[in-house]
Amino acid sequence: MHSQNLINVITDALPSLNKSETKVARVILSDPDAATSSSIASLAKKAEVSEPSVNRFCKRFNAAGFPDFKLKLAKSLASGIRFVNRNVDPDDEVSSYTPKIIDSTINTLALVRDKISHMRVNQVVDKLIQAKRIYFFGLGASGSVAKDAENKFFRFNLPVSSHDDVLMQRMLASTGSTGDVFFVISHTGRTKEVVEVAEIARRNGSTVIGLTAADSPLADMCSVTLDVDVPENTDEYMPMASRIVHLVILDVLTTGVTLRRGPDFLPHLEKIKDSLKPTRYKSES
Amino acid sequence: MHSQNLINVITDALPSLNKSETKVARVILSDPDAATSSSIASLAKKAEVSEPSVNRFCKRFNAAGFPDFKLKLAKSLASGIRFVNRNVDPDDEVSSYTPKIIDSTINTLALVRDKISHMRVNQVVDKLIQAKRIYFFGLGASGSVAKDAENKFFRFNLPVSSHDDVLMQRMLASTGSTGDVFFVISHTGRTKEVVEVAEIARRNGSTVIGLTAADSPLADMCSVTLDVDVPENTDEYMPMASRIVHLVILDVLTTGVTLRRGPDFLPHLEKIKDSLKPTRYKSES
DNA sequence: CTTTAATATGTAGTAAAATTACGTAAATTA
DNA sequence: TAATTTACGTAATTTTACTACATATTAAAG
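^ inputs. structure came back:
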């Protein structure tokens, strides 16, 4: 199990801290990286408190002591949401915006990893296993996610298709029936067309799975929703991370389905892999 | 700048270490997480060497001393490649395969972040900026990546299209000319059709950009190649990470192009964003 | 095969760091 | 205002890490 980012925890707890603890917190938050490599003495001095105060502070946040606290802090800095400004700046060079964008994606994924509901994943896998037919729907950026999903689920030897055309989606939704699964992908969950399509499908007794934002109109309409709270995009230069998250969640679902199918299914996957070989140049290894 | 993962560094250095250093390395590598929270004394005991040997070991890897080493190790563990077996197991539960898949994706991205050539990114951005027209080509899984790229580059107010149909690709490639950029996406870089298409485009004087594996036939054919060495997929249950990597790299390129266009271009982006508003249900916030 | 030099490893002492126990001060409540 | 709780610091203790030095091991040269 992954724990939440220490820096966020401290920030959240800030109002409930007492005088000296607040002093310590401020010093740590002002430069967390420096804190990880300083001694308890120097930190106490900087915060103008005594050494035991720092120690107590650490224990308050479930650390065994100061060294353990530093360790946890260091891990937070490396993996978690970067505390410092990680937004792309108008005068950033390649060498600075490249890691920023990748880091930001990594952070989002780490967030999803810690927050995603395993129960829901299981429910969705259930529905997908039972499906006689699967339709993946998405518009705009989610269209390519749907397309990717089609590609992946094709391997399961059952009728799959993806559609990024509203009219087509409407028609399919209205002709759907029990046994059909409509997998609707939408970042916001508030695109009218998409919500309507989900409603139509639902009315016809089909299963509707949503990969979308929590508490959105689309989420309300679905049989099961895999909701992901991808932080909103504030920076003009920062790309939308939700597509990536959706793709990775679909990876998870694919794996879930594969595992449920059991080991007897593996030869089939191999066959598909092999079928592609003649289209490729041999590797010189 | 990101430094390389400490665990990898130690693994690589393993053959060049002397007896006691090897012992220390083995103990650390066998359970890096435990190492981060143990004292120099207990580690020395476990490795059956003296404390100074451990200390010397740390200094060899550019740490100030043992505590500093632990810190760096902790950071490596948090961000970098998980060392322990992170493969999906046939009897994994949702709660175990979900983080495994996400972690694996994160690790791959971290690797790309540290290895990607900024010079190449710059070169590709150059070409894209100069393009009169951009075609994104991909087959299979790369088809959806191409589609996503089209979606993103559409915002730049220049003719873009994506194609996952071989015949269409051939025709377009053969009618291309200077000023046209063909952006070819392929995981392996060895699909014959794709390589041929690249060759045709190249012969006609078009610029061909490859987002593919290094040292592949496709890479050889391109004007510029953004090569990514995504580790090969060994596990049957593990999804292919290259699609994700390609998407993120396209995010980077989009940002690169946006920045080059300068701040005058931002209002245009806003306009596109606003155009979608009427299609959405209002948020209740 | 010995001698010499270099490298590798360990011992013991020293310094630094962290933790604990305890006492005093401040704040809260009755 | 007294009693009680909570907050904080001092000083002693313990743990931890580091340094200087000595011994052992290995490699090289005679």
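Residues 18-21, 49-53, 56, 67 of chain B lie near DNA strand C (CB under 10 Å from a C1'). The beta strands of chain B are 133-138, 160-163, 180-185, 207-212, 224-227.
thumbs up if we can close this ticket
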